[in-house]
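Table 4 source record.
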Amino acid sequence: MTGKLSVLVIGSGAAGSAAARALVAGGADVTLAEPGRVGGSCLWFACMPKKALYNAAHSARALSRAEQYGLSVEHAGVDWPSVLAWKWHAQETYAGDQEALMTSRGIRVVKLPAKFVGPGRVQLGDEVLEPDAIVVATGSQPVRPPVPGAELADVSMDAMSYESPPRHLVIVGGGYVGLEFAGIYSAFGTEVTVLLRDTRALSAFDPEIVDIAVRALERQGVRFVTGASLKAISGGPGAFSVAYDEAGGRSNALACDRVLLATGRRPFFAGLDLTLSGIALDERGTPALDDSLRSSDPRVYFAGDAAGRIQLTPAANAQGEAVARSILTGEQVPVDLRALTTAVFTVPQLAQVGMTEEQARSAGIEPVVRRQTYEYVGAAVITDERDGLVKLVFGPDDVLIGAQVAAPYASDLIYALALAVRAHMTAAEIRATRAVHPSYSEALNWAAW
């Protein structure tokens, strides 16, 4: 016994790592349980490798337009094994030795699965721990729809390791994963069909910027089928059949090489035996949490995808740090996600922060909306990527309460707008803040006029 506050963190993804680092920095005695690769899904199986593929696809699109810029490129093509090698190199270079990084901070890393054996008691191999606090950060897993043959299809992790780009890929779902892989594989020459259950993709995003991406993907050859209800999947790699009902009820089927399910994710608790924890669970087996992500057992917190709320890496980091503060101080710290940024790495990139126009109206705010397209922005003219938009949503006193961007570098541009939302900047203050010329950021300034 060290006499320190003892904390067990279960899971080493973004939320678990953030919590463990903050806890040990605050003087706690921290044990981190992780049976897999330390660092979690985003690092090894999602964000980093997928963005490496996105970058390769972006380069392929640029290469296809080289002659437009006066460049002659002979024998251009895709060396797929080299694309996968670069993906591996990027993720490994960024990650480094995560286990060593943790232990160097004084965090005890145990490479074993954890399971509850009673309220506040967790077993790691032959050892049973009863720490002062527990943080469950076990991440999430893909959801497979309840249709025949769903187990035959791929999920996002599979789609990052295809032996070669499929000739025809059917993607079921139009969220982040669906639109990102549609942009990636269509750039490598794959015929892509996206089946959407609803009438539009990315329902959580502002429809104006989503429409820009849908049109761009369609120009790249992606086909969208709206109102499609998946019925069954049969066959195997190279010879799949995807049966679905169209919006009017007529049955249809697609033949394809691969099927990618992009139908969401749910918290992952397999093997944890939450039923033995004494924590109150709902009918889905998900714990009820307060604003500080504390469960009905005041010793046990949940963070990241395991909390079942916003499934984004920046949110997971913020949740892990907030939970650590609650444990260290004994005062419950609500998670502040008011200026949380989010982006979809598709064509073009989409990003947003704060409220959309629709969300503002739902909250009883009559917003003032200002827009700026990229049609005549200097940087966009130079690159000839002019189909984009900056949309600023202002609330009372002309204060910025939300922003949406569709542009090649939207994931970078949105950070400046997040600062503006957090700082309660007015339209006049944004107008007075000049951007570099020529740059894509000029549209942020112009949009405020």
